[in-house]
Amino acid sequence: MNGIQLINHPGSILSEILDNKGISKRELACKIHLQEYNIDYILNGKESINDEIAHLLEIGTGVDKSLWLNMQKRWVEELLAYFMDMVRKNYPNINMSVEYDKESNEYFIYHDYKDFANSKFCEFRVDLYEEIFVSNRIYNICFTYRKDVQL
Asked: Which domains does the chain have, with CATH numbers?
């Protein structure tokens, strides 16, 4: 992502914890009843930490479930901030805001660009979205038009 250093995905923290405790990924997978490839996805930052995974990691590492969930939330929010910064640098006249719906665990990025579907901005947004979110298996981001965006 253009050389920008973001905070670490919770998977990198998991890697440190496993190293410090002398636990292999195979041992962790067996202990929490996941496939080893699932642990690899988490360690490589390609799997989000949801409620179920956080609970299993708490069992496997002793690190509180809420800490895993908070790390994941911070990481996603930093990716969102990076996404919005990139959009604003390339399209400074577009207003955007982000809202988080705790119940659905979804983030809504609202924009005020009326002709979104027929624009270069749409292509730019799709490419950037895929680079940042889809490549990191984050699917709870919705990009939506709203004429009265509040910054």
From this structure: 10-71 (1.10.260.40), 75-145 (3.30.300)
